[in-house]
Write a structure and sequence with these properties.
single chain; alpha/beta; nine-stranded mixed beta sheet; two-stranded antiparallel sheet; 11 strands; about 15% strand
Amino acid sequence: MIGSILLTLLILLVIWFAVARYLSGADLRSLDAPAKADEARRQSFSTGDSLNAEHRQVIKLLADLATQMKRTPLKQHLGHLRRFMDSLSDGHEFTARFIPVDAGGVKAEWVVAPGSDSSRRTLYIHGGAWAMGSPLSHRVITSKFSELTGGAVLAIDYRLMPENPRKASIEDSRTAYRWILDNGPDGPEPVSALVVAGDSAGGNLTLTTIAWARDQGLRAADAAVALSPATDGTMSGRTLKTNLATDVMLGAQFGRLTRIPHSLLLWASWWLNRIRPCDPDISPVHGYLGNLPPLLIHASEDEMLLDDAQRYVNKALASGSPVQLQTWRHAVHVWQMFYPQLTEARQAFEEIGRFLQLSLPPARQESSPAVSKADD
């Protein structure tokens, strides 16, 4: 009897780990070391060897959030985090106009800086772990993209988890991509220059969307920008653990996940998303990375997702795609949200501006008239 039970347990254990291996996909550790020929495609930035007053101010904000979360009942955590993210745009003075729009069935807003050319467009996909964030939370970033591109930014309000499945955000991003090709803030109009950009979870959706557009034979983006993107749904990167202590944003919210056995995480992801964790639709690093548009990726050297960025870049470069990686010391996850108070954020947007200037077609001599619709 005992022998039969042990045999059954052994069989179940073998099945458990065999399926976990299927869910994890290819071993990505070979992507940890960049090829010497690719070093020119990497840059590292630093404002000093230690944290400065700007960093400490941001860290205090995040520490205050962590304290508030400890005092908040668990069932209210998500709502509290969503309100916190949306409050990040409070107190900022914007010259851009924010115009609600239905982007082919996807809620969104146009972000239009003064003098913007309506045919030059950016599809911006916000971050927030696919469960929080909105066009409102990311107006600091989207208004800056409108300035840098000299065009309009379509910030989509994709359907969030857990109210919707993970596939919903993927579908909304693809729908918005098709729509922005033929529609601007003034109505139907062909696009003359196209950027796709996003941060964190939105960086993930940016990378999966440009790969999908390539496979669909759609007009390719002229450039793409991914800020601290999540690229590996199998959560195999070393920095998820080695940078846990230095990632003051993700460490506080998701550090507990690093203590869960990896095989259990894979099963949980499969059950939650109904998609194999290594499927390129949610793990772009596991897909084919050739024939991509010019792509700039930013990551902090202190964040948990650093390996996600590095491995993606190494594979994309090996596949012949024009990808560039820029990293910063001491920066928090998606530090660009703290523009202009962080020096690193100002530097990051300067680099994004240079990249876009080199990648995008020249602007028209005379821009389209500024949009005159009422603000949101």
